[in-house]
Amino acid sequence: MHPWVGAGDEDRRHILEELGLESIDQLFASIPASVCVDRLELPAARDEESVRMSLSRMSTANLSMGCVPSFLGAGVYRHVQPSVVDAVMSRAEFFTSYTPYQAEISQGTLQVIFEFQTLMTRLTELEVANASLYDGATALVEAVLFSHRVLRGKRDTAVVAETIHPMYRRVLDTYAASAGIEVVTVPPGADGRLDPDRVRNAASEPCCVAVQSPNFLGIVEDLPGLAEAAQSSGALAVQVVTEAASFGLLAGGGRFGFDVVCGEAQSFGVAPGFGGPHLGFFACSEKHIRQMPGRLAGETVDDDGNRAFCLTLSTREQHIRRAKATSNICTNQGLMALAATVWLESIGGSGLRRLATSCLSRTEELKRRIAELGAPWELAYPESPTFNEFLLVGPGNGPDLVHRLAEEGILAGVPSTLWGGSWPDGVVTAVTECNSSHDLDAFVDALKRVS
Amino acid sequence: MSIPADLLYARSHEWIRVDDDGVVIGITEYAQDQLGEVVYVELPEVGTAVDANEELGTLESVKAVSEFLSPVAGEVIEINERLEDEPNLVNGDPYGDGWLVKISGSPEGEATLSPEEYSAFLEEENS
Amino acid sequence: MKRRAIRPEPLFFERNRRRVPRQGFLLPELDVPAVDPKEILPPELVREPDPDFPDISEMEVVQHFHRLSQLNYAVDEGLYPLGSCTMKYNPRLNEVTARYPGLAGIHPLQPESQVQGALELIWELEQALKAITGMPGVTLQPAAGAHGELTGILMIRKALEARGDTRQVVLVPDSAHGTNPATAVFAGYRAVEMRSAEDGTVDLEALDRMMDDTVAAVMLTVPNTLGVFEHRIIEISKLVHDRGGFVYIDGANLNSFAGRALPGLMGADAMHINLHKTFSTPHGGGGPGAGPVTVSEALLPHLPVPRVVREGDTFGLLWDDPQSIGPMRGFYGNFLILVRALTYIQSLGADGLRAMSDVAVLYANLVRHRLKDAYHLKYDAPSMHEVVFDDSIQTRFEVHNTDIAKRLLDYGFHPPTMSFPLIVHGALMIEPAESVAPEEVEAFCDAMLAIAKECETDPELVKTAPHDTPVRRVDEVRAARNLKVRWVPEDPAP
């Protein structure tokens, strides 16, 4: 017997009797004996305290970001975590419920999705947004496949900026081959930014042009110029965002004519969690809504004429469309979308702006102090505008610098060429509202000691 | 289920009206009943070339999607633009205002069914 | 009895209509000089303040979500007998371990020496799933079951490419969930449907005819989507392997035999596991899930990267391997979901997992026994952890499965899965899972029997259900016809 199995031994005997059976094994008679085992090769059941100790030991063997000054970014960011977020996420009505297929008893979940969709449309400045995707990397994949579909499969090339998170690019490569799509890369210029002319000439008749802004080097791209470059070749313009907090200060790509704005919304109240679960998002213009991947909540009415919400346009999805579905996605990241909704509504509109300004101010301050410090440390792109990340170079390669700074008690950032890249070998450093002036001091002091 | 006597039919549940310059098609009353309330119709562009039995477009209800096929080889001459705002015409008046597409070409030599053959076919399907 | 949440809850955007500044969350004080964004960033890229993204105070946030939560039915409330979803108890212990700061607060790109515990955890779960399935390899990367399916099929594709084989077809039973053919097409294959035998299992003759050197793989769900075990699985696997193909098993129904049988012995080459089904991680209102894939020897070289590797007592990450299909998503997997699954598996242990599947199957058969005279059972074959009825008795009174589902809501239960699998028209697929007490299963059966009676004596009551839910039947047709997927400022106030 086990507390998580509802029937006791006596219950089991009683039910077997009712079914006219002698042994539970009779219910498994259709399974060939040759595939059965008497017992799995696993330990016996353990009590709660024992399991807590086991997991706790593995937990304390890690150094969590809150313990030392931390400047890690590159797709996963440390931002404030209002306690209400976890309190709401812990409500069983939210986390133990299923996908809201039965709308009448899922209005809570559905309204949250509708609010999340609305928030994402306001931030991306596009007309429709879905209920979430797995993460930023797969969001990029979905955007490329989406563009391919919208152009009716007639264009098989995708132009992709090299300064999109290189890990995202590797994930795209996994999918692109089986989709028959060729990916053409455009490297950044000497200033770490994309040149729209170069993008325009990268390929003839691509289905999309995908750029990230702020990019992997932290630099803000010329979105109007890049949207124009995409459209001049009849391609869809895709903006990828890995640091969603940037929406607090930077306009969404929809403002400049981007057809898709997608990426990672982990910054909105989702725990870093060693890489997952995170929160992919996807927004596009209304005219393409039928090609959009992922779930969608819509507003309607009930039999009494009261406002109600339900999942809609399900015919795009696999359980109905089967081989012609718009995407492979089924279960998405619903609970994370709830977290983001609570986070955004708790921080508020002007709060988000203040948070982003705080990130920007602190980043500029750190950049200033590093510039003051001088050789052997310098910013790789001192003149290029950044939001809250930048590339730092110093006396050694990226992994080496990160290691030595860790020994000085600083989590300085992520090595910039972990996945290759045509930019200098250094450290991508991120600064958020969680990095106090004291943290910045500690960072600069560590740089001095490592010189 | 009504099966008008002045039309031809396909096994894929389209009806066919032969005009001088081509054929007009829609889906039968049986088909719209099976599909449920139509919420969206995807029609081809005028000028699209099609083969016989090639998919022309789709009809969506809340829970299902159904393709409709061209019974002839030809070119799309006209589409029912009213369906963009009133997709439920397919349910309410499947043989009239719920028509879908007009295609140049003739059904001669194609495997169409007479009203009686279609009726028998439906009976067979449902037994 | 009335539920709470009496007042309709407005949207966030409909609150604070006068847009009065209120204090939302307090941010850390700015202890460096404030900058003017337009001086640092290109001014044309700077966002203007959004008047329709209000600021509300903390209690407003709490009340908003509290009221919304009360509109939901959840596993914690009562039985959720969704076939193929395995809606079991989500242990609170999982929620404790997943929140340990050393697990929730670590960055995936920290130096390996700083995250040894996390890497070890991934390793431990991998070993556990290999033991549970009897298969030699596994990836924990996929974020959901469908994602796992795609991963499995891509590995099969890679294995075939490696031996210069260009097969183009994947066979899928007509009873399969839509994700199966969708996955095959996504991976660049043609999905060809196989008709089921009379008893709902794979038709061996059909398979024999169709399995040739153009077929890369056969995708099977075991037990199948009718809750029936493919008793000739060994013959099926042998036939497929002899002709150079691979066997993919959709593990959505693993709750029926985990602890008792090993897919590795059934000839599986790849099988995805839904941690949010079999291994108790919460459904979260639509995810996050996790869909690890266990593999046979033949597919080991093609597992996604990055992979956790072990040297003595030290763990590391392998990022590159030319034989791998590559990464399927960012980083290593839905790690905090993996934490929950490991918590569950360590808690249950070998004997607990066995009891889990025993009782899951026992309860499903109890339901079958109690309802088989009132509802039509299309397939006579033995049911495992789920039983599929259809509404053909009730349709005589013009009541359909959807109506029965809506009426169940009035009785305080979540409905079963409906209209799936496609080969059963008007299906009601019931999977009680093992967590609830027997009394809860009996109460569900009582409700279903009462509704069956109502279909005869008062069908209108059933057809106009639900009557006692927070909203009445929702107009899904209108939602699809008049698409409205966001709030805009022009919307009228509620």
Quick structural overview:
Chain B is an alpha+beta fold and 127 residues long. Chain B contains three helices and nine strands, in the order E-E-E-H-E-E-E-E-E-H-E-H. In chain B, the strands form two sheets. A six-stranded antiparallel beta sheet of chain B has the order 1-2-3-9-8-5.
Number of structural units classed as domains of chain A: 2
Q: In the CATH scheme, what's the topology name of chain B?
A: OB fold (Dihydrolipoamide Acetyltransferase, E2P)
> Kindly, what is the distance between the CA atoms of the first and last residues of chain A, rounded to a whole number of angstroms?
62 Å
CATH architecture of the largest domain in chain A: 3-Layer(aba) Sandwich
Q: Distance between the terminal alpha carbons of chain B, to the nearest Å?
A: 15 Å
CATH topology of the largest domain in chain A: Aspartate Aminotransferase, domain 2
| Oligomeric form | heterotrimer
Percent of residues in helices of chain A: 25-40%
Which band does the percent of strand residues of chain A land in?
A: 5-15%
Strand order of the largest sheet of chain B: 1-2-3-9-8-5
**Percentage of helical residues of chain B?**
10-25%
Summing up helix and strand content along with how strands pair, one would put the structural category of chain A as alpha/beta
Please trace the helix and strand order of chain A, writing H or E for each element.
Answer: HHHHHEHEHEHEHEEEEEHHHEEHEEH
SSE order of chain B, one letter for each helix or strand: EEEHEEEEEHEH
Shape of chain B: globular
Unreliable stretches of chain B: none
The overall number of domains of chain B is 1
Computed Rg of chain A: 25 Å
Separate helix tally of chain B: 3
Q: Greatest interface and its residue counts?
A: A-C, 201 and 205 residues
